[in-house]
Amino acid sequence: MPRGRELLAGVVLASVGILLALVALEVGVRWMHLVPDRFWEPDPVLGARLIAGARGWWTQEDREFVVPVQINHHGLRDLERDYAKAPGMFRVLILGDSFVEAMHVPLEATFPRVLEQLLDGGRRIEVMAAGVSGYGTASELLYFEREGARYHPDLVVLAFYPGNDVKNNSPTLEDKLKPAYTTDGALQRVVGEAPRKQVHGWRALLARSAAYHYLRKVLVTQHPQLAQTLVRHGWLQRDALPAAPERDGVPVDYGVYAAPLTPEWQEAWAYTERLLDQLQSATAASGARLAIAIVSSRDQVYPQWWREVVDTYPHMRSQTWDLDAPMQRIEAWCAQRAVPCVALAGPFRERAAQDREPLHYHHDGHWTAAGHRLAASVLKEFFEQRDLVPARQQGVHDEGH
Fold it and tell me: What is the three-class DSSP state of 43?
């Protein structure tokens, strides 16, 4: 065979080999669900929303969970629902963020699904989950006004997460879903990221490639210095580098626990309490009752994990922190407005002290399946003690009792 043909054959074989290797890598990454799928899209009012009908898998870098996810036709991670209630049905609508969306556990293990089962026993009670990652009280209020009220709930439960909900409501502290207010403080909308620009050619191919996103994630998490070098030379986009916003060497989120609060955080609380007032009015106008469940944070439940945070950020060591202060402030708001309220941190701490099964994921911070079961149990008792749901029929007992 002539030398030229040998060279050409070698190039062809090498190209085919590389192509097959890339295809195998792409198939392997998808089959093993090493990269999370995308379930959110921009919304001009709410900032973001779940993509109706989306299906895929959710995971994270530490592989603490790999979960199948399906979004219903109304854009909720919940069972399929109609706006109209069945006759005689008592409907509970739970508003919240990623703790309610709960992509970290299978759907049947989420606390709304478990709670609905616990409330069974001759009662026709439906528990709906209306949670979206990144939502604060601003997005939740706008969601209820636009969508939530259409489900005609009898009870609206706001799952309030002090760890970032107060920040989410601030136009200066929030960095992703930023609420927009008028000069007199009225909420207009929440501003999210702009719709992605359509790309073509090899950029479009990379955007759809799971293998590319996985390799980029490995580069950023395992070789951050190399990734920063690539960013400086324009070979990697800057938004590929995860960076939590900081104030004076402290991640912004932790400012809610500072004692005393800065003026910026005091303003964030003022916005938050005003939004809670508006949500109470909106639920009452719809004929529903409002209750609040204060979600626990991993740092409240596991003190050793909070110590890890403080050790990671040396600037935090010289400051005073009160992890229960935000919870107590919400409890005070509820007491002043006669809104039924339950804080989950206490029961979670008690269970964590007794049981080795983790209630929060260590790295991700959200509830494990055990955490969801405990939350459902606490909420069931809370609902029944405060007469927030119809009474159980006599002669009907909980399964297993």
Answer: strand
Determine the structural domain holding residue 18 and report its residue range: 1-31
* Residue 221 maps to a domain: no
C-alpha to C-alpha distance for 362 and 364, rounded to whole angstroms:
6
**Are 83 and 120 within 8 A, CB to CB?**
no
Do both 122 and 265 map to the same domain?
yes
User: If you compute the radius of gyration of the chain from its CA atoms, what whole number of angstroms results?
Assistant: 24
pLDDT digits (tens, 9 = 90+) for 195-209: 666 655 555 555 566
Instruction: State the pairing for strand pair 66-70/55-59.
Output: antiparallel
Q: What is the pLDDT confidence band of residue 62, given thresholds at 50, 70 and 90?
A: confident
Which candidate, 137, 110, 169, 133, places its Cα nearest to that of 50?
Answer: 133
Residue 219 one-letter amino acid: L
Amino acid identity at 326: P
Mean pLDDT on 349-358: 94
Alpha helices by DSSP H, listed for 147-223, are: 165-168, 202-208, 210-222
Query: Do 114 and 15 lie in a common domain?
Result: no
Write out the H or E segment, with its range, that includes residue 68: strand 66-70
pTM assigned to the model: 0.88
- The sign one gets for the Cα dihedral 384, 388, 394, 397 is negative
Same-domain status, 267 and 337: yes
C-alpha–C-alpha distance, residues 110 and 104, integer Å: 9
Is beta strand 341-343 parallel, antiparallel or unpaired with respect to 178-181? unpaired
Are 24 and 103 members of one domain?
no
**122, two tokens:** 């001759």
Judgement on whether residues 170 and 126 belong to the same structural domain of the protein? yes
Q: Is residue 165 part of a domain?
A: yes
pLDDT tens per residue, range 231-278: 566 666 665 556 668 888 899 999 999 999 999 999 999 999 999 999
Sequence-separated (6 or more) residues with CB below 8 Å from residue 371: 296, 348, 358, 359, 360
**Whether residues 46 and 123 fall in one domain:** yes
- Cite the DSSP H helix spans in 127-241: 137-146, 165-168, 202-208, 210-222, 224-232
